[in-house]
Each structure stands twice: as structure tokens, then as C-alpha cells.
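re: that chain from earlier
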Amino acid sequence: MKQLSLKTKLFLLLCGLLSLQVLLVWGLSRLFLPAFYRGDKEAALQSAYESVAAHYRDGTLSEMDAALENQNIRAEIWSRETGLLYASRGLEARLFVQNPPFPGGEPPPGAMITQPVNLASFLEEALAGQTKAFLEEPGGPMGDISQLQLAGRLDEGVYLLLRTALQPISEAAGLATRFSFMAGGLSLVVGLVITLFAVGLLIRPLAQMTRVARDLAALDFSARCETGARDEIGLLGQSVNTMADALQEYIGRMHRANEALTEDVRERIRMQEAQKELISNISHELKTPLSLMMGYAEGLRAGMAVDGATRRDYCDVIVDEGQRMNRLIAELLDLFKLQSGRTPPVPVPFDVGELAEGLARRFGLPAAERGLKLTNAVPQGVTVTADPDAAEQVLRNYLQNALRHAARGGLVELSCADAGDRVRISVYNDGASIPDEHLPRLWDSFFRGDAARGREHGQAGLGLAIVKAQMERQGLGYGAENRIGGVVFWMELKK
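^ sequence. v structure.
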């Protein structure tokens, strides 16, 4: 069975209430209108009786004419001795008197003397000792219009008779019922149209909230309720918007935390892979010198070196390989120390020109031995703020790398350039360019573009990894670029 919508339910409920109201008005009119009509007439006669009695005692009966006429009530005061004492004005007044004298000698206006009857005796008999009573007669003496009569004794032998016409109430009640039914039907139609419009206005924000809730369930947090009302529905819409904002912020935090966790997992995996590679590279780098040292040591022990010169050669190889292992261990310790962050940099202002000049003098002899021309174009008085020990280590590694790879008879040059709020120090060397695919990997531990040349020069491939660690812990730039005829390595220092 199809579930009815809230709009349909509210519309049917209000339709039922309106229909019930129309039927209730029709039923009450049909059942209680005659009794209500008679009760209203009786109450009017009771009130008129008290007023006429009061004016009779005060002698001001003439003042009652207009009031009684407006209420369609006829009043007659009869005396057992003298007949009619008072008759109110009325278009329908028909007075039955016996042997008048009338007050002033003339009958009241509109009086029709048709029968010489004194009603005092009739009223006295009808009251049967009561002070006041309704006379239960279906019709008056004329018989054509039903009348409601109230009789009472005003004084000894003086009686008051009040009469008011009762319309045929069944006919009036039927007419009133039909009119009520027709008016109720019209009211029902108009009410249904208004109800349909009102229910639409009421349901529209609820339907919008339903769509927003559905979007939130689908993790679309951009939807909002657009209600400006200050009633309960408006407050509910504001609560939905507040919930959407809170969910969006919470999911955003969870998303960022998940991204950070994912990146952390990737970093851990990368570090584990790097650690495995580092261990493998260390094992490989140590294996060669250890094998050489053990081979030459066993040769000495076995007496393979038959003369002093051979023994010295064997010992030189053992010493060289031991020094190579010592340099490898020292570089590893430096790299681990930098990567652990246990020794933070100490930036201070210093003259980078003096640093470059000192390194140029220190590396001048090794350059000359290789037939290279080493020049320094960094001027004196260029002040930078950085860790001077770190800057010196970086430049020293750059110069060592340049001397190893520069073409024989080529140029190695130290230079300086302005880079905004930084100073760029570069080391250039003539020689073959570095393959583009190798440039990003130059800074990895134990990476050597030409492994055979690296081992030939006694290098393990840690120099540029140390440069990377030194520069990144200070937040400074570094890099390598191919130039026409050579390669340049650079670093940036804060002014």
C-alpha cells in the first residue's frame, strides 16, 4: 500500500474537521433551533412583564409603547370591574373589550371592538392562583398565527396579558437548516482551497529539510535550509543548518586527519624502504673494503709478499681501505645526526665571501694536481645569516664533487648572485652533463650516477645526501642544473 505524504494527511485531516464542523452546525440547527427560538421568546416576555409591571405601579404605561412595539409584543391590562385598562400600540393589535369605558372616553388607536368580552375572568381562571404563568395555547383567538402568551396578576382583580407571535418554527427551522447546509457547503469548498494553500506553505520548508537531510546522508554538505521564519519550523531549519555545518567541519577534520595519516603511512613505508636500501647499501659499501682488507691480510699471513716492497703495497691497500671505511662511517654518522634533528642549526651573520675564499685556497692544490683551474668570484663583504658550519660543509661537498667530475684541464668556479632576500652561492665545473632522470636522485643516499667512478674515487655517495639534510633542516634552497659545457650546484642563504 502506498504511504500517504504528510501534505496529503494534513489536507485530509483538515477536510475532515471542516466537514465535521458543517455537519455539526446543521445537526444542532435541526435539533435545537425550535427550542432555542421558543426560549428566546419566553425570555423576552419575562423581561417585558417585569418592565410593564414596574411602569403600571409608577403610572407610566405610555412610555412602554415604543419598546413593546419594537419587540413585537402586545400588552393588555384587564380589570375585572372596569374591563380594559391599557392596550399597547401594534399593527396587529386586536382588542376584545366588554362595555368600555376607555380611558379618555375613546378606544385606543387600532382597537377593533368585535366582541364584548372581558378577559379578566378568563385570566383569573387560567392563573389558578399563580402570580404569573404561560398560557399553553396553540393559537390565539384569531387562530391564524400561533401566539405565546404570558399572564400575570398585577393587583387585586387586575391582570396583565402579554402576547407575541410565534412564526411557524418548523418551516423557519427547515429553511434555516437548508441555508446552513448550503452556506456550510460553500464554506467547506472555500475552506478546502484555503487549506490546500496553507498546507502547501506549511509543508514546503519541511520538504526542503527532507531534501537537505537526504543530501547530508549522501555526504553532500553544501545543501542548506533557506527558511527565514522564527517559528518552530524555522528553528528546526536553523538546527538542520547548524548540524550540517558541524558535520561538514567534522568530516573535513576527519578527511584532513585521514590524509595526514595516509601521508604518514606513506612516509613510514618510504622510510622503511629507504632504511632497507640504506642497510643494503652500507652492507655493499663495507663488503668491498672488508674483502680487500681480509684478502691482503691473509696474503701477508700466508707469506705471499716475499719482499719488503710487496709487503708495503699490501699494507697500503689495507690502510687505504680502512680509511675509506672510516670516511664512510663518519659520513653516515653525520647524516644520521642531521636527519635525527638532535643538533639544530645555529644561524648567525657571517661573511660568505671569506668562507668561499678559505675553501678556494684549501682546494687549490688538489685542483692543480688534477690540472684544473679553480677560481673564486664571491666578493668579500657579502653578509648572510645561516649556520656557518653547515654552509662550509655544503660548499666543501660541492667542491669535492666538482673536482671529481670536472674534465681535465677544465674550470671549477665559485660564484655569487642576488636572489631577492637570499644570496645564491654556486659551484660550477666543466664536464659532462648529468642525465635528466638522474637529477632528482642526486640527493639520495648512496646514489652514484657512475658507480664505478665513485668507487674509484673512494666515494660512497653520501655527500649530496648530507647537503640535502643540511639545507632542509634550515629551510633553505638547493639544487643542481645542467649548463652548456658543464654542471652547476647551488645553495641559497638568507641575507
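The first strand starts at residue 73 and ends at 79.
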